[in-house]
Amino acid sequence: MSNLNFLHSGGNKVTLSAPTSDPSSNPNFKLPQADGSADQFLKTDGSGALSFANTYGPAFKAYRSSSLSISHNSNTTVVFQTEVFDTDNCYNNSNGVFTPNKAGYYYVHFSMRIDLVSADHLFQARINSGSSGANYIGIDQRFNKSSNANNSASVSVLHAFNGSGDSVFAQAYQNSGYTNTILGNLHETWFEAHWVRPL
User: Fold this and answer.
1) First-last CA distance in the chain
2) Number of helices (H) and strands (E), helices first, in the chain?
3) Planar angle of CA 187, 57, 137, nearest 5 degrees
4) What is the band of 122 on the pLDDT scale with cuts at 50, 70, 90?
């Protein structure tokens, strides 16, 4: 077995060794052209090219800081104006859209508290993936049994995103026949997501 030794001026050495068993081919590993950043690791593309990569991905949390009216039979996009954190600037607090910029599996969560004025009707918290339409990847469905009461709905999903062109946003729905209100508060209505692992 061949070894490559790097001798320190102090007399000790660092050794790189070939595999214990004879490889089935002659692998060629190409090192990156520049050093990586702190806490990155060295990865391969499966064809011998090595590069530095992060061990983590985007993460954010934002909350609704003011109330929001939801009309009867309305799919209303909920914009969370106040960011608690946004590690990679992937959340837009002007339109409520999270754009994951790294491919992988993501945990996404939406929770809302709604002030209902009518009993015996449906309300839903929805997570939508896509630029528009009803491409829902998660729905929490509740049925209100008492009028003039605060009710909560929350939905969590684990979803795969390709890191290019994907978008995620939260929507609220209710069919009471009235206009109802989502309450704005860090502990009542919020939206969050984080990267879990590669695809």
Assistant:
1) 35
2) 0, 17
3) 60
4) confident
Distance of CA 42 to the CA centre of its chain: 24
Is this prediction's pTM over 0.85?
Answer: no
Higher pLDDT, 74 or 131: 74
State how far the Cα of 174 lies from the Cα of 177, in Å rounded to an integer. Answer: 8
Q: Is 135 in contact with 128 (CB distance < 8 Å)?
A: yes
Pairing label, strands 104-116, 149-161: antiparallel
Record the tokens describing residue 187, joined without a space. Answer: 């502990």
Residues 132-188: tens digit of each pLDDT? 556 888 988 887 777 767 788 999 999 999 998 899 999 999 998 888 899 898 889
3-state secondary structure of 49: strand
Label the pairing between strands 180-182 and 50-53: unpaired
The length of the chain, given as a count of residues: 199
Residue linked to tokens 């508290």 = 113
